[in-house]
Amino acid sequence: MIVSKKMLIAVAAAIIIIALAIAIPKLSPSGDQTVASASLLRIEYIKEDMKRISYGVTERTGALKSETLVIDEKGKAYYNLNIEGGKGSQTKFQLSQQDMKRLKAILTDTGFMFIPKSEFAIKEDANEFTRYTLKITLDNQVKTVQWVNADASQDFVPPLLTMLSDTLTKIVEEHSS
Q1: Are 23 and 78 in the same domain?
Q2: What total of structural domains would you count in the chain?
Q3: Could you tell me the CATH number of the domain that includes residue 114?
Q4: Statement to judge: residues 20 and 71 lie in one domain
Q5: For 146, what's the count of Cα atoms within 13 Å in the CB-facing half-sphere?
Q6: What is the pLDDT of residue 29?
Q7: Which structural domain range is residue 117 located in?
Q8: Residues 122 and 136 occupy one common structural domain
Q9: Which of 15, 102, 137, 153 could bond to 42 as cystine, CB 3.0-4.6 Å?
Q10: Same domain as 104, residue 20
């Protein structure tokens, strides 16, 4: 009976040691930085305000306004704004390491890379809508998703896409004003 209690205590101690060996690197700040810096992230985000014009038999869809945000793996961001009629602007800025970590966390924790659908259909009667394209490269995996605003979509647009769009739009607003 005493031998079995000693054996039970030894097994419990071994389990606790293994659990601590796994948990400590994940909880410590230096372990978090190693994981974050080991993964490469590149983001290409396009937001286009579109208008469909009918000419009777044919129709044309064109962008009234186009915004492009590219963030490279080092956090350098390039933002281009083009408005129909030739007016446009370019802005370059640097994202903080904290912003990059936050973006990586959003993409990895939410399962963005595993969204099964990559394109969402536009309603036939939608004449004005916003089209979004998001291309994420994370550790040599590439995922491109294209969708339109919920009012103009035939399909259900996952809230994750709206959240990512809002996050990237907020980054642009913070750095381009």
Answers
A1: no
A2: 2
A3: 3.30.1560.10
A4: no
A5: 6
A6: 45
A7: 39-176
A8: yes
A9: 137
A10: no
Cα separation, 7 vs 40, whole angstroms: 46
Q: What is the DSSP secondary structure assignment for residue 58, as one 8-state letter?
A: -
Among 34-43, 95-104, 151-160, whose mean pLDDT is lowest? 34-43
Specify burial of residue 166 (Cβ count, 10 A radius: 0-12, 13-18, 19+): exposed
Q: What angle do CA 158, 161, 164 make, to 5 degrees?
A: 145
**Residue 34 predicted with pLDDT over 50:** no
- DSSP lists the bridge partners of residue 128 as 51
Cβ atoms within 10 A of the Cβ of 93, count?
Answer: 15
**pLDDT tens digits along 67-124:** 999 999 999 999 999 998 777 899 999 999 999 999 999 888 888 888 888 899 888 8
SS3 at position 27 = helix
Give the closest residue to 63 by CA, choosing from 90, 31, 86. Answer: 86
Encoded tokens for 60: 């044309």
Give the Cα separation of 6 and 121 in Å (integer): 65
| Beta strand extents in the chain (DSSP E only) | 41-54, 59-71, 76-83, 88-94, 128-138, 141-148
Do 168 and 174 contact (CB within 8 A), yes or no?
no
Q: Are residues 92 and 164 both part of a single domain?
A: yes
